[in-house]
Amino acid sequence: MSVTVPFRFLHAADLHLDSPFRGLSKAPAAVRSALEQSTFSALKALTELAIREEVDFVVVAGDLYDEADSSLRAQLALAREWSKLHEHGIAVFAIHGNHDHMGGQRAKLKLPESVHIFGPEAMSGQPAYRRSGELAAYIYGQSYGRRAVTDNIAASYRPSAEAPFHIALLHANVGGDPSHDAYAPCTLRELTAGGFHYWALGHIHTRAILHQYPHVVYPGNVQGRHPRETGSRGCYIVDVSRSGDVQLDFRPLDAVRWIEGAISINGIPDEGELLDKLLEVSYELASREDGRPVMIRLKLTGEGMLHSKLADGAILADMLESLQAEHATEEETSAWIFVYELEQHTREQLDWRALEEEESFAGEMLRLAGRLQRDEAAWQSFAREALSSIAAHPKLGHLQRGKWNDPSKEWLEQAIRLAVGHIVRHSGAGRE
Ligand SMILES: [Mn+2]
Fold first, then answer.
1. 23 C-alpha vs ligand 1 centroid, how far in Å?
2. What is the pTM of this model?
3. Which residue among 6, 21, 40, 321 is least packed, with the fewest CB closer than 10 Å?
């Protein structure tokens, strides 16, 4: 395939403007306000990126607003940012998704004429031009008219015009991702067979390139909205060459990043050293996020003498507070660190070697685990038998995506530590 002219566009989705951040009443004011501003900051970063990278146009695949009855603040922000793009000759093509469907209440704000929002009735198409005026592509889309669109709208998408390149905007759950609502369900196969060159998707918040030539792409959301949306969030800059080559370049836009890390208590003698270690690890984690403010969840793992102290919730809470206080001193800088949660996953320190020799149920279990560790075939058949009822269960079987049939040795390690730990705790055996 060859296109008439090379061009560049920006693909984003799921801006979720004015997302609320709940459950952070104890966070310092600077942290709370940065989070409240974060979706707006990401939008501004998007505008700046589009201008700096001299893209020809921007496509946004739904969930511009977090709520269908969107706040005036969110609408004003979008109108303001898109006016800036308009001034730079950058057109915007967008659809509404389930969060910001067109059935909601909105002020009638005037958007620049270079912004095109696709309607909810049916798929329609629009020409997209390079900033220098040549026709670059046709863009197609259909917005949600109500929250729950459960029919396959992709099935009605057709490339209609004689354009050199066809870009389809779609807010949908492709392939039935169970972690997101099954809106506008469709399969990857349907999309790749549809005659489009690039499916600019939205809805799933974790970026993924599902297919190349034709490209089927989720850019993910532009800002993590809660602790489970970890890691960098942003958009793709897409370059289409004269010969039809498509190149994607991910660019982060997030203003605050949610991350997590784990610290083992093995060998740490007291709370003072643990606090030092927690500080060190949080700096180390934050330093990998190119100077962005970070929200960190730290998990305490391992076995050691601190376990029994940490099992006391009050000490854990004190530890978290001290850690937050240490970080609060740098709050003035733009790259602040806030540890919002300290999770306790530690275990009692056991004398595993003595236990393995012991004539007890725990000892017998440890010896069995040892034999299974050494004998792959024995482990496979043992695990399959033990897990067969879960694998056959109509709902549970989907968890872990069929990994029940390929049991990991790590499970054995985790299971034996958990089981023996419980037994010992209730019998008093094997303690150091
Ligand atoms: Mn969304």
1. 20
2. 0.83
3. 321
